[in-house]
Design a protein that fits this description.
CATH class: Mainly Beta
Number of strands: 5
Radius of gyration: 17 Å
Number of domains: 1
Strand content: 35-45%
Shape: globular
Order of helices and strands: HEEEEEH
Largest sheet: 5 strands, antiparallel
Helix content: 10-25%
Structural class: alpha+beta
């Protein structure tokens, strides 16, 4: 007879806290829905990088971590959501 896994055998996922990033999350969802390119600053260990005019197509939660799946030209990109700052749709960026 097989035993149920113990608590220590169970894999638990901790979900990233996106508090304070609700607006960015909403903007990305709308950009995906309306197929608008987005710009944002992405935090990397060696500093921030400006990411411009990428085409988001999906928000993915994998093991509690949020990612933005997008394309830049023919290249597929994957960015962790908490590292994305100052998110703007291309339409907003072009509006004075």
């Amino acid at each position: 007879m097989r035993q149920a896994p113990s608590t220590r055998d169970t894999i638990a996922h901790q979900y990233e806290d996106l508090s304070g990033r609700e607006d960015s999350f909403r903007q990305l969802k709308q950009a995906i829905e309306h197929r608008h390119p987005v710009n944002f600053r992405y935090r990397k260990p060696d500093g921030e990088k400006l990411v411009e005019a990428i085409e988001p197509y999906q928000l993915v939660n994998q093991n509690g971590i949020w990612y933005l799946a997008a394309c830049e030209g023919l290249q597929a990109l994957e960015n962790r959501l908490p590292k994305c700052n100052q998110t703007r749709t291309q339409l907003e960026a072009d509006t004075p």
